[in-house]
Design goal:
single chain, about 600 residues, mainly alpha, 5-stranded mixed beta sheet, two-stranded antiparallel sheet, 27 helices, 7 strands, about 65% helix, about 5% strand, globular
């Protein structure tokens, strides 16, 4: 190896940072208009900035009750302050220099890019450890080509998913670490931080921990990784609970890091420590002991927390039918359109193939045990897609490692050719294939979802695009503060860009209010009036043809909303004039 090549290898961290900076410039340029108009399209992003504002305005660190929804009592959000920290830090840094508006624009633009750096570093570390010292370039390139996953790191996407994905990649880097103790600590701390944010990646965390136990079963030499993982996971989870668990999450709730999951983690880690102390010499004995320990932990959870055996969100059957079952990302991938199926499955499938080949090539080496963990995670992530398509970003990033292995060897094979055209087109073609970009060529050939009433769906698309914008909501923001009855999905946006309060937002802990909104728009007009009175709402705001409105329209053609949309008016609703061209209809409730 030449001195220049060795110097480049030693500077891999600098090159990863430069790749990240280049990606930041591109992503900021892409979203510059949205940043200017504060276009937080997702309800969770709006709720996140509202949560940060409340904290900066004096709300307690452990008080995560959102008082602007379901007033006056509000409702407890199941998140933690961990993700609020970088957003609040940027605001506090920029606000004295440029004012609050620019400070918030800077925060929503920059904060999502921070976990992207951690993701790139973790992917590079894994590639260097398992593939080749220079393969990190391929891994970083593949991360930036995973469009489903990259959407979680784009400017304005300030919700917690980007951080959880970054900790997932850090977990994989820990599983690939040849230094057993360091690798176990990395997996334990990354898993605990992810759980402190939320439980979305709990299944992946469980699979990663199980793979460490399996490696100890196969090879007794893996004991240091098992011990360091158990200790670090237990300690970091306890600290995460103490530092970040809100007042509400200190109760035995099922949907966040609470006494339910903390106790289960501590019992599980204690069981792993017990296994490491018994440490039978033969692998069948280690397997039996591990199965017994796993059964004991499962029994502890099952009998100690029986109320958490069902859906972790704890939604009622009625709410699931009316609301949660209509959330598109909660449906399996086979229920999506053809474009989503191809985009969602390509990289995970390529990654699974690459990881399988990697195990075969390294079957007599230490790396085979590292690859086995990645194969298990890859299989699990692909399976998760057939449960809920929201597993797509995690499945793509897990697939990056196997795809990088496949891409690196294909690129090396083409690079060894004596023909220049083979080298150039072969290397480019190999990257296009393993990154999934090549599948874009088949998108025009895929069957498209045919919508019979095109004029109607054009109105829906227009409403979805215009109703959440600042210009559309500005006239409503000029009105005196009030509690507004509106669609569930409009609630977070309304409380973020105006001084008004709303009845409901799309969060399962807000389920009584969500049901009230659905009952109001589905039921008779007098029921809607009673629900408005119950919540102290003095204004009624609807955006005709917004996606949520289509549910009420189709489900209850004689309901209150359907009558409003057809133009029927009621004596207890007094129209409030809005500027010409406004997509909203607004009434004052007598």
């Amino acid at each position: 190896m030449s001195a220049q090549e060795k110097s480049l290898l030693d500077r891999w961290r600098l090159l990863v940072v430069l790749i990240w900076l280049a990606a930041c410039v591109w992503l900021l340029w892409q979203r510059w208009g949205g940043i200017h108009w504060f276009s937080l399209a997702d309800t969770d992003d709006n709720m996140r900035i509202s949560q940060v504002r409340a904290w900066l305005n004096g709300q307690g660190w452990y008080d995560l009750r959102q008082y602007k929804l379901n007033p006056p009592q509000g409702f407890d959000i199941h998140w933690s302050r961990l993700v609020d920290l970088p957003i609040a830090g940027i605001i506090l840094l920029v606000r004295p220099l440029f004012g609050g508006k620019i400070a918030e624009q800077a925060a929503v633009a920059v904060a999502p890019l921070i976990p992207l750096l951690l993701t790139l570093v973790a992917a590079a570390l894994t590639a260097r450890r398992l593939i080749h010292p220079r393969a990190y370039l391929v891994a970083c390139g593949l991360v930036l080509c995973c469009q489903v996953a990259l959407d979680m790191f784009r400017p304005l996407r300030i919700d917690h998913h980007g951080w959880q994905l970054a900790f997932l990649m850090l977990t994989i880097a820990g599983l690939a670490d040849p230094e057993r103790k360091r690798g176990g600590i990395t997996v334990g701390v990354a898993s605990a931080l992810s759980l402190a944010i939320g439980l979305e990646l709990l299944p992946y965390i469980a699979v990663a921990g199980s793979s460490i136990a399996l490696r100890w079963i196969w090879r007794q030499e893996a004991k240091p990784r098992l011990v360091s993982y158990a200790i670090s996971f237990a300690v970091a989870s306890a600290l995460g609970f103490a530092i970040f668990a809100s007042y509400a999450n200190r109760a035995p709730v099922c949907d966040a890091l609470s006494p339910v999951w903390l106790s289960t983690i501590l019992v599980g880690c204690a069981a792993l420590m017990l296994l490491s102390q018994i440490d039978p010499a033969r692998w069948p004995a280690r397997l039996l002991w591990a199965l017994g320990a796993g059964a004991a932990v499962a029994a502890f959870y099952w009998f100690t927390w029986p109320h958490c055996r069902g859906r972790l969100e704890g939604v009622s059957p009625e709410l699931y039918k009316l609301w949660l079952s209509n959330v598109r990302e909660a449906r399996p991938i086979y229920m999506q359109n053809a474009d989503t199926i191809v985009a969602g499955l390509t990289v995970p499938t390529i990654g699974l193939i690459g990881a399988g080949w990697a195990i075969w090539r390294a079957r007599r080496e230490e790396a085979a045990y590292c690859w086995s963990s990645i194969v298990v995670l890859s299989l699990f992530s692909v399976g998760m897609l057939f449960w809920q398509v929201r597993a797509g970003p995690a499945a793509q990033l897990i697939g990056v490692i196997g795809a990088a292995f496949l891409g690196w060897h294909l690129i090396a094979w083409f690079a060894a050719s004596k023909r220049m055209l083979v080298r150039v087109f072969g290397i480019v073609g190999a990257f296009l294939v393993v990154s999934g970009i090549a599948t874009y060529a088949v998108f025009p050939l895929l069957p498209k979802e045919v919508k019979q009433d095109k004029a109607f769906w054009d109105k829906v698309e227009h409403a979805n695009r215009t109703c959440p914008t600042l210009p559309s909501l500005h006239p409503i923001a000029l009105l005196p503060p009030a509690t507004i009855m509106t669609f569930v999905d409009l609630g977070p946006r309304l409380i973020t860009v105006t001084h008004h309060k709303a009845i409901a937002g799309p969060y399962h802990r807000n389920q009584p209010a969500i049901l009230d909104i659905h009952h109001a728009f589905d039921g008779p007009p007098e029921q809607a009036r009673a629900i408005a009175k119950k919540h102290g709402a003095t204004l009624l705001l609807v955006c005709p043809y917004l996606s949520e409105s289509t549910l009420y329209r189709s489900r209850s053609p004689k309901g209150f909303y359907a009558q409003l949309e057809r133009g029927k008016r009621f004596p207890w609703l007094v129209p409030v004039p809005l500027p010409k061209g406004s997509p909203y209809w607004l009434w004052r409730i007598k």
